[in-house]
Every structure is written in structure tokens, then in C-alpha cells.
Design goal:
The complex is a heterodimer of chains A (385) and B (228).
Chain A (H helix, E strand, L loop, with lengths): L2 H13 L5 E6 L4 E8 L2 E9 L1 H4 L7 H23 L8 E7 L3 H18 L3 E5 H7 L5 H11 L12 E6 L4 E8 L3 E7 L5 H11 L6 H9 L16 H4 L15 H16 L6 H27 L3 E5 L6 H13 L3 E3 L3 H4 L3 H13 L23
Chain B lengths: L1 E6 L5 E6 L8 E7 L6 H11 L13 E5 L5 H18 L3 E4 L2 H10 L8 E6 L5 E6 L5 E8 L9 E2 L1 H5 L1 H6 L15 H13 L28
Parallel strand pairs in B: 1-4, 4-5, 6-9
Antiparallel strand pairs in B: 1-2, 2-3, 6-7, 7-8
The chains are: A alpha/beta (385), B alpha/beta (228).
């Protein structure tokens, strides 16, 4: 048995029935997260955000985020260990987001995680951020309990019993995934070909003078507007992109939001050119509906056509009230079970990285070599490096 | 006293430097350095680990960690500082910072043809600029660190890759560029030796805050253009 295998085996032994104790680090965007889990039990989820430093720019500035990560990482580690009441020596393995994400931001978390691995000799897992957004569902007690009762087992997993799809919607991502096995087999079904949904919210919010972050601002204002007053384009829904179930077009499950953002700009300019005040609540409501209509319709379409009976929602935009409502309506009409982890688990955090790390350890997946490189465009099919 | 030195301001490097009791000069026990300037996140951790043949699971016998705080290209620089800060945290060992240009200045001053008066150290700041500082004959930094075009440097002997890259510009301005140092980069071994002799002389090191010298390029967006 190699030293590495021995280390993994001893981690699995030490973990016992409680599950392994994993420390996870996340730094792919503007949140410095350190989370600690034991198996599927959340012990702590410490998040330090540089969001306030990005407000005046109307979006995340990678260099500013990276500088903030460097100053936040050790305080976040200290806080997480204290809060969880464990020491670094107690930890069975370290997990870190190695991509996808902002290259300079990823580098900080990866360097810190590697330092922990060097300092403690513990195994290190370089983890896919998107798959971690799915794996985090296991930390939500309600979801975990439902999965355990389905599976009739003491320890829940994801994808092995239910036919699982995942919809990830955030400032950096908009993806539909098929999860056959959270620890071994994840496939990309569709994704945005330009802006992420959350990015479109930020850009439109700036256009409407609503401030940053745009998601919550538009969600609030849209509630006061009429979502059918102004009809905005639904990206990639034309027949030539969609095709049919038998002969899918090139972008059947894909999204595009950059044309929509331009359409909103033209609309606002039109009002201004006529000397009229733009009806911002109606514009916000119409824009939000255009984004969420396509996202929810295509996610449900993918589930139906791919035979997926359960859909998991993740990412920061999962906090949007209209997205939750539309998705609840449409999945229930299609007979698909919808799982939505609580919001603090949906936004970027270290606990999701630890949760996926725990799954990999429990399944005996080999740790990552110390020389792995962060990858800003890591494909979702690479669960760990 | 045993120091772990790390510098990623240009190349990635790490070294163990011992200062024997009563001595004023350190000794490099082990060191690691790359040539290239773009793989820090990959190579640094294995490089640091290679300095400790016995896995230091409960904390090695270190007295301090000293990290080069730049100036240097941001992303690479941060990988070294993040590594050093986290090692310091995990091992509970004191952490110090040192200007990375001091590593080269130490090599110049202790080299065969040490200048008798003030000299410059310059490294590549990309974007047709150099990071530089001015040192006196005793190796004290008397100006800088600063970033700017090579043409703005004072007319003094200049050392380091930043000087080599702009040798013609510097020569035309009255600087002399030592060919032996025309490709020299700051390295952890020299940084550790410089730190050891400074500590032996009762001097003080910096904290580990990076010397970025440049702001992020981000501009606050102006008001949206209105349709007329």
C-alpha cells in the first residue's frame, strides 16, 4: 500500500460511523469561506465577503477580491476552527475549490490549502466549485433526511438512488447538470453561452440605478411591477436553437443573457429619448421574468427529457423569490421533486467544499497531488483534480 | 536560529537558513527555486515540503518564517504570502516580511564586485516598467521601493533582471548595468540570509503586508450615456 493510500485508509478508519472531519476552503469569487463538516454534519460555515468593496464598481473586481482573500483567509481559518471546537490536528482531510472561478482569487485559497497540507501532512482534495454547490445539499438536514428515507440508509448520498438534476444559478454560473453520482459522475447538460444570470441582474440593476448587488434589488423592485407590461426576449428559445427532443438543436438546454441586457438598455434609452421617465418597476419585473422563465423552463425540460425525477437548486440566485416560485410551480406540474438548500448554503461558502470533500473521502477517492494547478475553467465533469 | 524563507515576487523559491548562536552570518541549509515566473501555485508547496525531509506534522523546529513581500506581480506574490501566513498559523511560528528587492541587494553587496557607493536593484514589473529601490553601500534601502519606467531611474550602478531588460535605456541615462546580475531575480535563500544578518544585528523586519505599489486597474464606471 502506498503512503497516500495508507493515509486515505487511515482517514476512512478514523472517520468511523461519524464520517470524516473535513475542512473546506472556498475563494473562487468574492467570498472567502472556511467550513468544517463531519460527514454530512455541518459544524461551522465562516464566510468573509469583500462585496462592499465592489459596490462602487457595480460588479466583482478580481484584483480587489484577490487582495481581500489574502487578508481574510487566516482570520477565517481561525474563526472556523474555534467555532467548530476542533484543532487543525483533528482534521482528517483538507478540501479546496480549485476551479472554476477567478484565477487570482482561486490562487489564494489554493495556496493556503496547500500550506495546511504541507504543515499537517493531511490529504488534500482539489474540488470542483460547481459540484460542491450540489454536494452542499447533504448538509441541509431537511434534504438529507428526505434522501435517507428514500434510500433506506443511514448515510445519504446524491445521485445514486434518485435520478438527479441540478440547476445552478449565481453571479458567475448558470448551469444544468445531471448528477449520476456526486462523488464520481457529473455531466453538464446546459450552460450560459455568455453572461451568468446573476451577472445580468447586476448589469441591469446598474442600468436602472438600483445599486449592487443587483439580484436582491431587482427582486424587491420587480415585486412592485407588472411582469407582463414589457416583453423582453427569451434567449436561445428559437426553434433553430431548441430543435426537438428527438433531434436537439445546438443550444436546447443552454442560456444567453447578453442580448437581454442590451434589450433592457435600448428600452430605457427609448423612454429617455421620448422624454419619459422609464417605468423601472415594470422593466425590472419584465427583465427578471425573461431570465427566470427561460431558466426554469429549460431546467424542467432537461429533467423531463433526460428522465430526471429530482431537481436541486443551488447558487446565490436561489435566494430570488420569483425563481423559487416559478421553479416550484413548474417542477410540481411536471411531477419533479424540487430540493432547495437553505440560502446560507446556496451562496458561495467553504462548507460546500468540505461537504464534497467528505463524500470523496468516504468513497475512497485518492487525494490530489500537492502540485495541482488551480483551473479557472475546470469542467464540471472533473469532480476533483 | 532557524528561518524558513519564501519569496514569490518573481520566481518561486523557498529556503531554510540557520543562524548559528553568536554568529552574524546565516547558512543556507536547504533551498528550492524555479526559473519560471508563472507556476507559483503549482510548484511552491512541493518545493517547501522538499525542505523538510521528515513530514513536519507537529511543527518543525523553526524560529520564524520570513516572506518576500514584493514588490512583484500580484498573483504570484500573493501565492507566497498566503503560503507563509498559513504555515505561520498552522505551525504557530512568528511571521515577518521583507522587501524582496533586499534579497538581490544582499547578493550584490556580498558579491565579488560589491559597489563602494549607492546602487539600484530593479526587477521586472511588466507593462514596460520596473520595480526598483536604491541602496547605500551598507545595503540599507534609502529610496523606494517604487514602480515606474526604467528611464526614470537615477544614474547609478543597476542590478537585477529589471536592469538587464532595460540595459540600453539605463546606459543612455548614465546607469551601469552589471552583466553578471542582468538576469538575477530575488530568491528566498538570499532573502533568508539578509533577514538573518539583519536580525543578528538587532534590526527589525516588516510585517507580511504585500508591497503592491499599484492599485487594481478597475475604474469606477461613469454615468450611463443617455440617448439624445
Amino acid at each position: 500500500m502506498s503512503a497516500t493510500n495508507a493515509a486515505v485508509a487511515s482517514v476512512q478508519d478514523a472517520a468511523g460511523a461519524m464520517g470524516p472531519l473535513i475542512l473546506g476552503i472556498e475563494s473562487s469569487c468574492d467570498e472567502t469561506g472556511v467550513g468544517i463538516v463531519r460527514g454530512t454534519t455541518l459544524l461551522t460555515n465562516t464566510v468573509s465577503s469583500s462585496m462592499n468593496e465592489h459596490v462602487r464598481f457595480g460588479g466583482v473586481i478580481p484584483e480587489i477580491a484577490s487582495r481581500a482573500h489574502l487578508d481574510a483567509i487566516v482570520p477565517a481559518l481561525t474563526a472556523a476552527l474555534t467555532e467548530a471546537g476542533v484543532s487543525l490536528q483533528d482534521i482528517d482531510a483538507i478540501a479546496v475549490t480549485s476551479g472554476p472561478g477567478l484565477a487570482g482569487a482561486l490562487m489564494v485559497g489554493v495556496s493556503a490549502a496547500k500550506a495546511l497540507a504541507v504543515a499537517t501532512g493531511k490529504p488534500l482534495y482539489a474540488i470542483n466549485h460547481l459540484v460542491a454547490h450540489v454536494g452542499v445539499a447533504l448538509l441541509d438536514e431537511t434534504i438529507s433526511a428526505r434522501l435517507r428515507s428514500d434510500q433506506g440508509s443511514a448515510e445519504s448520498s446524491l445521485g445514486r438512488t434518485e435520478r438527479l438534476g441540478a440547476l445552478l444559478v449565481s453571479g458567475g454560473h448558470t448551469e444544468v447538470l445531471r448528477v449520476r453520482d456526486i462523488a464520481a459522475d457529473v455531466e453538464l447538460l446546459g450552460a450560459t453561452i455568455d453572461d451568468a444570470a446573476g451577472e445580468a441582474f447586476d448589469k441591469v440593476a446598474r442600468l436602472l440605478g438600483l445599486g449592487y448587488p443587483g439580484g436582491p434589488a431587482i427582486d424587491r423592485l420587480a415585486a412592485e411591477g407588472n411582469r407582463t407590461a414589457i416583453k423582453f426576449p427569451r434567449g436561445l428559445t428559437a426553434a433553430k436553437y431548441m430543435g426537438t427532443a428527438e433531434e436537439p438543436g445546438p443550444h436546447r438546454y443552454d442560456f444567453s443573457f447578453s442580448g437581454l441586457k442590451t434589450a433592457v438598455a435600448r428600452c430605457v434609452e427609448g423612454y429617455e429619448a421620448r422624454g419619459e421617465e422609464p417605468p423601472v418597476a415594470d422593466i425590472a419585473a419584465g427583465f427578471q421574468e425573461a431570465v427566470l422563465d427561460v431558466i426554469t423552463a429549460k431546467a424542467v425540460l432537461a429533467c423531463r427529457e433526460q428522465g430526471l425525477d429530482t431537481l436541486l437548486l443551488g447558487g446565490g440566485v436561489a435566494a430570488n423569490s420569483r425563481l423559487r416560485q416559478l421553479l416550484t410551480d413548474r417542477t410540481s406540474a411536471a411531477g419533479i421533486r424540487l430540493l432547495v438548500p437553505r440560502t446560507s448554503l446556496c451562496t458561495d461558502n467553504g462548507a460546500m467544499v468540505a461537504a464534497l470533500g467528505a463524500q470523496l473521502v468516504m468513497r475512497g477517492v485518492a487525494p490530489s497531488p500537492l502540485a495541482f494547478a488551480p483551473d479557472s475553467s475546470l469542467p464540471v465533469s472533473t469532480i476533483s483534480v | 536560529m532557524l528561518l524558513l524563507a519564501i519569496d514569490t515576487s518573481a520566481i518561486a523559491s523557498a529556503a531554510l537558513v540557520r543562524l548559528p548562536p553568536g554568529s552574524t552570518a546565516g547558512l543556507v541549509e536547504r533551498s528550492f527555486a524555479t526559473q519560471d515566473t508563472r507556476s507559483h501555485a503549482e510548484v511552491l508547496a512541493p518545493g517547501v515540503a522538499s525542505l523538510f525531509p521528515d513530514a513536519p506534522t507537529s511543527g518543525p523546529d523553526l524560529d520564524a518564517i520570513v516572506v518576500g513581500v514584493g514588490p512583484g506581480p500580484f498573483t504570484g506574490l500573493r501565492s507566497g504570502i498566503a503560503m507563509a501566513r498559513t504555515l505561520s498559523f498552522a505551525w504557530n511560528v512568528p511571521l515577518h516580511g521583507m522587501c524582496s528587492l533586499d534579497a538581490l541587494a544582499w547578493e550584490v553587496r556580498t558579491g565579488a564586485s560589491a559597489p563602494a557607493s549607492d546602487f539600484l536593484v530593479a526587477t521586472d514589473a511588466r507593462r514596460r516598467e520596473v520595480y526598483w529601490a536604491r541602496y547605500d553601500a551598507d545595503g540599507r534601502q534609502v529610496e523606494g521601493p517604487a514602480v515606474g519606467p526604467a528611464v526614470d531611474l537615477p544614474a547609478l550602478p543597476a542590478y537585477g533582471r529589471g536592469a538587464g531588460l532595460y540595459a540600453e535605456v539605463l546606459a543612455a541615462n548614465g546607469c551601469t548595468v552589471d552583466p553578471e546580475f542582468a538576469a538575477a531575480q530575488p530568491a528566498a535563500a538570499s532573502l533568508g540570509l539578509a533577514a538573518a544578518s539583519l536580525l543578528a544585528a538587532g534590526g527589525h523586519l516588516l510585517d507580511s503586508s504585500p508591497l503592491y505599489l499599484r492599485e487594481s486597474d478597475a475604474k469606477v464606471p461613469g454615468p450611463r450615456k443617455r440617448a439624445s
